[in-house]
Amino acid sequence: MPVPETSPRNYLKEKMAGGKLTVGMIARLVRGNEIAAIAHTAGFDCLFIDLEHNSFSLESVSQICLTCNALQVTPLVRVTDRSHAEIARALECGAMGVIVPGVETAEHARSVVAAAKFPPLGERSIAPHLPHLFFRAAPATEVMPALNEATLVISMMESLAALDAVEEIAAVEGLDMILDGAHDLCNAMGLPGQHDHPKVRAAFERVAKACRETDTFFGVGGLGSRPELAKEMIALGARYATAGADITFLVQAATANAKSFE
Question: Rounded CA gap, 47 and 38, in Å?
Fold first, then answer.
């Protein structure tokens, strides 16, 4: 694979911009870069490295991101909160995008964009020899606009406050995607596990509409175990869907295999 000059590519973003559906796999269990190779072999468009729900170190995140980029599997990191430090450090590991929970207002979204983007779009600090370029030296004047274009900024939609402000959030410049988190959104609505409830469907429809009207990507998460329902939500215009997590795939396959010997 040729080493990129000053234009790192986000294959996930390119595919979504082309109007195609993309599918991601969550990494919650495997801490080595083997998980990047598995995602590549399985045919996933991206690897969703979930720091919110596991204990991965930044060293592990860095190794996985570097391998993902070499294999053209886009690495996204879900950080634990929307703080500048969380976002900046995830991106410095080589992530091509951040997934940020707790974004409930347009002001929150603007602060996330500021942390993720270089000037003039944001306030991200520039370091030499970035992993996104496989540590090739390049002028900051070339790297910063290239990475601003390639880096995906994604906010989670998981609360009633966020749903109430979704139109304003979607309109924030520099925010690329709103990702519906079905599990937490159901909980926030007092409907735990009821992914097919009419109120939950209406919430997805509202988010999809806000994204369409602002040319923001719409993503679907938390429905990997309900592919038939996920497809209905994808029909609303989603360009990204999370299929499930490594630990879920392992447990399901192991359970099925054990039962086959009964």
Answer: 10
Enumerate residue ranges in the chain where pLDDT < 50: 1-3
The 3-state DSSP class for residue 117 equals coil
Catalytic residue among 53, 108, 129, 183: 53
For residue 13, what is the enclosing H or E element?
helix 11-17
Q: What is the pLDDT of residue 230?
A: 84
CA 142 to chain centre: 25
Is 132 an active-site residue? no
> Which phi and psi (to 5°) does residue 201 adopt?
-60, -40
Q: pTM for this one?
A: 0.94
Question: 236 by DSSP, 3-state: which?
Answer: coil
190-210 residue pLDDT tens: 999 898 899 999 999 999 999
Q: How far apart are CA 58 and CA 77, in angstroms?
A: 11
Alpha-carbon torsion, ordered 102, 65, 39, 238, to 10 deg: 40
